[in-house]
Amino acid sequence: MNLTSEGSDPNSDLIFVNFNQDCSSLAVGTKKGYKLFSLSAIEKLDKIYEQDNEDICIVERLFSSSLVAVVSLTSPRKLKVCHFKKGTEICNYSYSNSILAVKLNRLRLIVCLEESLYIHNIRDMKVLHTIRDTPPNPVGLCALSINNDNSYLAYPGSNQIGEVQIFDTVNLSMLQASMNYSWLITAYSQRAVTMIPAHDNPLAAMSFSSHGEMIATASEKGTVIRVFKVPDGCKIFEFRRGVKRCVQISCLAFSTDGLYLCSSSNTETVHIFKLENTKDKPQEESHGWMDYLSQAVKSSATYLPSQVSDMLKQGRALATARLPNSGLKNICALSMIQKMPRLLVASQDGFLYIYNMDPVEGGECTLLKQHKLDGSLECIQNEESSVHHDGPLVQPGGVASYANTVRQHDDGSPDSSPGKHLPLTPEWGAESFANVLRRAGGPQGALFTPSDVVGDHNSVEVMDGNVHRYMKHHPGADPMHHGNLGDRATGNNPLTNDLERLRLDDDNEFPPMTHKND
What we know:
Helix content: under 10%
Number of strands: 35
Low-confidence stretches: 177-193, 383-434, 436-440, 442-488, 494-518
Distance between the termini: 31 Å
Largest sheet: 6 strands, antiparallel
């Protein structure tokens, strides 16, 4: 989330905030520098690193490694790639225009300008390919899949309608799919250009699933969110966020297993959708006149106008979360923290909000903590904690979800009054997110394994009853490869020969730089 286009707030130093690829850390850019925080626990933000000598408008960390890409407000056309733990600058590149966005995965680094995109090989930082003359993209909207096997780049194909172009960053070509009602294929520079006409209005947000097999899109109208299958381009889900006009969706994010999708906008509500087909849902018996009315309307959908029938087929949010303010830009993410699914929202107001999510029943998400993005110790937390706080909770009516309240009443528990936090059962504390999802009847989703991640991992303390479990993964890595040098982007790389021989060091640092450019 880049706030340079939102206007300068004299009372705030915040310029940029973003989660890394697996939501294990948070990067915050300010007028004084940048900070990296660990997201391994909800109690506090553990500061990993702080740099305070220049104003940073973009900072992107590669998973849990020590590689960061930074851009400053004073030099908006210059990208610096650094090893923050060793305090070294690996290389820097200058471009013809201001850098609007930077995306990373384990194979590629993407630099987005207003009318061009540069694809770098992340192993040696050489420019492999340049996509020129793209439609004007003043906000730098683009998405990069984090999966090595499906390393796709998506960017707007038009600034008039919501077309999505998908580029294969490994084979350096546009994806080609069979012609159907939702795909347009034309010839361009002897390559097949594939566009997904996702919306009638220009794109506002898009995001790949962690496996790179789905892409979610939203338009500037902000009422409908669509999910397409990659690479064949079939529309597999459609959700209605709401009916309000002038809603600006600022972020879309999948859960790691691809079973959930969250959406945040300039309203005070964050939506979470469950990616399941209607035929996969268990049939429930009708218990009231509303159920009968709903079934009657659905059965008569074939006789209704297409716009009405399409609206009836659109999915609704499984869960929602309430923010204290509206009209502000924010980003959201779904992550597993301490063995439980959490919703994370970083807002322009300078706070990170952490919510508990019920993946089975959904409903209103419970606010657990909110932390200041500057890393100060001031935070607001729920009533379960004995630590005093000055400000009220975002949900003053109570932190218990509707599902947990009903569950407590069914169990005959006397302590289930609204306004008091209802603790989760030991069964939930011992189950993994995957098992909880399987119990919900959803499709099987493969979570990331430790071997999927390059770099060192923070130790995560997991509470399971009275037992503390510490997990620390140190996966290996293959030797680095490099490609051909592109054009236009000029790099200050006096140590290219050393870069080409780089390998992971004994501490699994990436890249293991021991030298510094002049």
